[in-house]
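Morning!

As promised:
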Amino acid sequence: MILTQQLILGVLVGGLYGLAAAGLSLTFGVLRVLNVAHGELLMLGGYGTFWLFTLWQIDPFLSLFGVGPALFVLGLVLYWALFQFVVKAHEEVRIKNSLLIGFGLTLVFHTLAIRLWTADERAVTTAYAGAVIKIGAFAIPLVRLSSLVLAFAILTALHLFLTKARWGRAIRATAEDWEAAALMGIPVGRTYLLAFALGTALAGIAGGLVSVSYSISPSIGLEWTLKALIVVVLAGLGSLFGAFAGGILLGVAEATSAVFLGGAYREVVGLVLFLIILLVRPQGLFGGRG
Amino acid sequence: MKLLMGGILLAVAFAAFPLISQRGDLLNLGIQIFLAVALAQSWNLLGGYAGQITLGHAAFFGLGALVTRALWVNGVPLVLALVAGALVATVLGVLIGLPAFRLRGAYFAIGTLGLAEILRITVGNLMPEISTIPAAALASYNMLSRYYLTLGLALLCVTVVAALIHSRVGLGIQAVREDEAAAEASGVGAFRHKLLALALSTALVGLAGGAFAYYHVSYYPQHVFSPVWTFDAVLITFVGGVGTIHGPVLGALFYVILKEVLAVRLVELHLLIFGVLFILVVLFLPGGLVEAWSRARRLLVRNSRSRYY
């Protein structure tokens, strides 16, 4: 009984894990840049949604159409100011420097967020926040269900973009082999820029959804970065739906553990899983490339 | 040579300082600097000289602190408690390094980041109560002994790393950083050297954690595993000058003093400044303050030459 209810909640939160991971997976897969400030970008998206709702009563699901593009622009700026210098290096230095720069960014965003908005926890509470759909004895919170559906829809749209659109195909070609892509006349620099900004926008949208169903504070960044990393490790790179499935898997694993071990070890379970996979089956993260 | 003299002078000045003043706040500032030197120098050994970036330094700092505090508070002599703390940190470090170092790239960095968070959350769950030095020990609390212990620790870290990097093994460690394949081809075992750097680095930061546990009167056990310690180590090392001996020392002085100056009015602002500075250093000035200084000097020397010749 409790288990089933927990599993439902686990699936629902898992969709957001998947969305958060998809952005990280996109930037890492295409640029070979591991941005550990991904969770902080998500946090910024969350605050965007929160303030739009608090100041102007803009519906959080509607405000995603503002927050997504805003974070897209932030992604453009970050790439232009920082990451374009990182991608010039060869792969090993690239990963190392992107880790370090991401690390610096987490500090900057975290400190800025505390100064601007204090360390308080915030959440968007809409009029329909408490609504649930009852199925038998089980309750499905409407807001979380909408978030899951929306996350899936966004990933589907992105998938269509990557497979059908000209620029999307350029992104995939660049991810496969940037040198060959460059020889085929694909502007690799601009493709990187686009992929990075898309990844940032995904983080922002995920953050907006987090602020509706859960809560945000300046310090949630690391937690969400780790969630995204765990999912990427679970699911491997290269597939958005893989990330979505991995996210749901993580959500379910957390929910199950919460029932048996108590909520205090929720975070630990995913991390332990993460360490084990890293140590035993690291192909999940780096695929065929060594 | 000049550098060595400068280092000795600095060490003597710090050692003699309590003869001039024993103001608690100044001694505290000294302790902060020494701990920062130890944190950064131990990170520098692994991240700078061996080229293995870790984002989980806090895990080993925390373990050192946890073990040392538990033993020392329960009557084990301080030295033994410190050694035990360092040992536990080293063992865990090696256990993680054994599988992780067979692989390249980001594994080690994000793996240690995950490890630190696992420990932080678990310790927070198991030990939610604040840890305070027992009343008996508190009555005899002596700031000077903390000052000299942490000074000794900082000196130990600097000397160990300096001695190591000039030794055969140390050259091997740096060779592995530059090019693993080439090092292997010259008979330098990459895996062995990385593991040695990791063991030493975690031992030193474990000691630093132990010293913190001896120094700090009361803190939540969770706090010593906080990512803050990793941030401090990485920022100080890079802003000072990664892969140099004096870089982390300069960085620590700069960091702690800036923090102290800004803390009066603008809490946390030092983190913002250091975060930005750190990003700029990683991108545009990989040698940090040390490189900035030598560049500035070259510029001055060139100018004065052109004036006289």
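The longest strand of chain B covers residues 131-132.

Hope this helps with the figure draft.
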